[in-house]
Write a structure and sequence with these properties.
mainly alpha; disordered N terminus; rod-shaped
């Protein structure tokens, strides 16, 4: 009987980890969409004149800012993937 209770607990923890993994991926994906959408909207604005930069400098600056702002989103997505993979490996090890 203890074994059956233990299996139920493992399955519940697995679902919680799966939800956390999916949640982290959704949040990081939304953040990345927001960053790159802002980049493409920023390309539409005439920034060279406002920033007093050479003609090709403003898009390059916007691109660098977008890449730097994307790093936390990519790290969060990778962490979400790691959480899901570790939980799957742990479940396979306990069920075997």
């Amino acid at each position: 009987m203890k074994h059956a209770v233990r299996l139920g607990r493992i399955e519940m923890i697995s679902c919680e980890a799966n939800f956390m993994s999916v949640f982290l991926k959704i949040v990081s994906g939304a953040y990345l969409c927001l960053v790159w959408l802002s980049f493409f909207i920023g390309l539409q604005a005439p920034l060279s004149r406002e920033l007093q930069m050479p003609a090709g400098g403003a898009p390059l600056l916007l691109f660098l800012i977008a890449v730097l702002l994307s790093i936390p989103g990519v790290a969060l997505f990778a962490f979400g993937q790691l959480v899901g993979d570790v939980r799957a490996i742990r479940n396979r090890a306990t069920n075997a």
